[in-house]
Specification:
By secondary structure, the chain is α/β, with parallel strands linked by helices. The chain has two domains: 191 residues, NAD(P)-binding Rossmann-like Domain (Rossmann fold, 3-Layer(aba) Sandwich); 174 residues, Rossmann fold. The protein contains 14 helices and 15 strands. Strand 2, helix 2 and strand 3 form a beta-alpha-beta unit. The longest helix has 29 residues.
Length: 371
């Protein structure tokens, strides 16, 4: 199969779909790899390094989309990209379709087969291709909160960990999954006072054992969530409903009762955000204020550390990508892992949570592929 890697064009996105290391693995497996000139620049990998790994360098993204059987990216295709996709072509990338009806329409119209990293689920219900970026985003969320908390950036002027004789900041984390766990690790490490809310008792038990009292765990109800949010200096939104739009847990009304200069970091913004007042931002203008509360809602947080992120992502996606390249569309039909990642096939929406979020017709992957 011919595998193509275009340069990412989303603003401030420096990651790359395949690292040189991954390219070599595709070549060892017998696949041809074409890489757009400069695609690895964000991770310090020049074209010569890709050539040494066995790739062929092409000048434009048009050449990638026109000739590749499978296109491997990091972020969702932008409008100028989805119009280049075509039937019988496989797109393998993050999509986050639930809050994005325009992209969904564009992909449906293209006729392509789109497999989304974020919905590939293992036998235990885990999301192995989303996990590495959740780890990165969770850790970055605390760095972002610490920066936004500075008075010069609109925050309360608190040091997260405080100093002897002065209280540390109170950090509330909504969701005890991978993002929430890694955010808590960072916040606890800096000396903040940390509370994690979740609705899974077994998960709360795991977190309680993991942190050994260094972070509080609390069952999430409307009352407990509101109480903690109003008493917090930082709130990290780390909720996830696989494939679907994130639930809006913090309302505009709550903001009015929060501490002025408190910080909200919405890691769920790729799925629409879990704060009512969230709107996607970029790395050059990461924050904005609503009712005196600082919002950080960057939609591609891991893009700020592309070297770490690209290699972590490729470590996870490589086995799945190789299976997809080896068998093409037929591989999806015979592989439960790949079927769970199938979002769109030849104009049909094959991911139930996305269909429900966008109120669009749904066709099970098995039926779409068989047809």
């Amino acid at each position: 199969m011919r595998v193509g890697v275009p340069t990412e064009i989303k603003r401030h996105e420096y990651r790359v779909g395949l690292t040189p290391t991954a390219v070599r693995e595709y070549r060892v497996s017998g696949h041809e790899v074409i890489v757009q000139k400069g695609a690895g620049g964000g991770i310090g990998a020049d074209d010569a390094e890709y050539v040494r790994a066995g790739a062929r360098i092409v000048d434009t993204a048009d050449e990638i989309f026109a000739t590749a059987d499978m296109v491997v990216k990091v972020k969702e295709p932008q409008p100028s990209e989805w119009i280049k996709l075509r039937e019988e072509q496989i797109l393998f990338t993050y999509l986050h379709l639930a809050p994005d009806p325009e992209q969904t329409k564009g992909l449906l119209n293209s006729g392509c087969t789109a497999v989304a990293y974020e919905t590939v689920a293992d036998e235990n219900g885990g999301l192995p291709l989303l996990a590495p970026m959740s780890e990165v985003a969770g850790r970055l969320s605390i760095e972002a909160a610490a920066t936004a908390m500075k008075r010069c950036n609109g925050g309360r002027g608190l040091l997260l960990g405080g100093v002897p004789g002065v209280k540390p900041a109170r950090v509330t984390i909504l969701g005890g999954g991978i993002v929430g766990t890694h955010a808590a690790r960072m916040a606890v490490g800096l000396g903040a006072e940390v509370t994690i809310l979740d609705r899974s008792i077994p998960r709360l038990r795991q977190l309680d054992e993991l942190f050994s009292g260094r972070a509080r765990t609390l069952f999430s109800t409307a009352e407990s969530l509101e109480s903690e949010v109003l008493d917090s200096d930082v709130v990290i939104g780390a909720v996830l409903v696989p494939g679907a739009s994130a639930p809006r847990l913090v309302t505009r009304e709550m903001l009015k009762a929060m501490r002025r200069g408190a910080v909200l970091v919405d890691v769920a913004i790729d799925q629409g955000g879990c704060f009512e007042t969230s709107r996607a931002t970029s790395h050059d203008e990461p924050t904005y204020e609503v009712d005196g509360i600082v919002h950080y809602c960057v939609a591609n947080m891991p893009g700020a550390v592309p070297l770490t992120s690209s290699y972590a992502l490729n470590n996870a996606t490589l086995p799945v990508g190789l299976a997809l390249a080896a068998g093409g569309i037929e591989a999806i039909l015979g592989n439960r892992l790949l079927r769970s990642g199938l979002n769109i096939h030849k104009g049909r929406l094959t991911c139930s949570p996305v269909a429900e979020s966008l109120n669009l017709p749904f066709l099970p992957p098995e039926q779409a592929l068989a047809a």
